Amino acid sequence: MTETEALLAFARTHQVTVAACESLTAGLFMATLASVPGASTVLRGGFVTYTNEMKQKLAHVEAGILNTEGAVSAACAAAMASHTRELTGADYAVSFTGNAGPSALEDKPAGLVYCAIDSRKRNRVCRYEFAHMSRNEVREAVVEAMVTQLLAAMKEELNGQEI
Fold it and tell me: How would you classify residue 97: left for phi > 0, otherwise alpha for psi between -120 and 50, otherwise beta?
């Protein structure tokens, strides 16, 4: 069983749903989950917010965060996840924002990515640095990492297990 299959099976068993707000991954996370048969019992929906304008309009990220911290920031990732969970009614929401490269963005290096997982219990932010990878390698690596992180978060919250 793949990690994605394990995530979906665990979510189905515990009857929880997932949504996502994706920027640099441009829908790859949701597409990865949706590639598994039966994903429709878990997936709620989400947003692809590739620009700051869409982060504000769709995910309700405050302009102040984007103006002071930038889109490539922990604050932006946290806001994207929490607002997406609220807007979709999902039990868990995952966000992805960062710089897949090839050059610096907001004076932040290529490969710097912030993600967040939001649930009713807490908001977790993850920071990744994927150096010396192509754009698509960064996107694929962060999706894989967040599938693992989301499954761990669910197990911790729903089973009381530390992972």
Answer: beta
Q: Tokens in use for 68?
A: 């002071």
What tokens were used for 127?
A: 């920071």
Question: For 22-61, how does the pLDDT look when each residue is reduced to its tens digit (9 = 90+)?
Answer: 999 999 999 999 999 999 999 999 999 999 999 999 999 9
Fold exhibited by the domain 3-152: Maf protein (3.90.950)
Domain residue ranges in the chain: 3-152
Q: How far is residue 60 from each of residues 76, 96, 137, measured CA to CA in Å?
A: 10, 15, 29
Residue 80 and residue 51: Cα distance in Å, rounded?
12
How far from 131 is each of 12, 36, 75, 100, 134, CA to CA, in Å?
35, 30, 22, 10, 9
Residue range 55-82, pLDDT digits in tens: 999 999 999 999 999 999 999 999 999 9
pTM of the complete model beyond 0.85: yes
